[in-house]
Amino acid sequence: MRKLLLLVSFTAVLLVLAACGGEEENAAGSEEGEGVRTVEVAVSSSSRPLSYVGDDGELTGYEVELLRAVDEKLEDYEFNIEGASDSAGEIGLDTGQYDLLAQGLILSEEREESYLIPDESNGPSLMKIFATGDQEGEIESLDDLPGKNVVPVTPTGGVYNLLNSYNEEHPDNQIEFETSDGGIPTSDRLQEVNDGVYDAFVNPSNLGQQEIIEEADLDIHVTEPVEINPTYFLIHDSEENAELRDKVSEALAELKEEGVVSELSNEFYGEDILQYEE
To answer: Where is the Solute-binding protein family 3/N-terminal domain (predicted)?
Structure first.
């Protein structure tokens, strides 16, 4: 009987110690996770090499890997990066579903009024003209686009601003173009140019056009950059995101200084795009 009582007592002590240990672990876990805020991030999942789904089924690309590098520097934040269509990403940023949007985005007046913008860019975007192959030498700059059938542009994007600015500065040499709501893949637009539906497609060159042209064997003439613009991560405008904007900007500046941005650029674009950044 005495042995039985000792065994019951010993077991009870073990249970108490185990419970205490579990509580300590839970407390430590809570303390570790405490203060770390999850940031919901939307990227395109089909804009190779900017952001896309790799062969392993995971998101990758220049902006995705840059975001991961930024995340590593921000101890108080954890990025949850999701793939989303362009329109879904923009709507989600407006509604607060996403805190941060990355789509190789050029600033516009509307975007500057609507979102929080880090001071530091995530790299320059090279604006080029993609024209039908038989127009090499005929279409080399914006000056050559009046009278041409230009692919419609989204009314809030950098291309829209570029063409409008050109028209304001050249009242006697106007570029005619229509607007669309977007959502049409870059590959489809290039195919339309190849097929002669349109003469020219003005587009940032960081969306994998060259790879599309080569894989589909398209007869497309690509001009030299007609404009160089910095691109930015856009952040949902809220009080709690103001600090996030500043932290992201600081991290981007450090990553440029450390050479990480140049390494990612060479890996995904085949050249260091920072050479074009003023």
So the answer is: 38-272
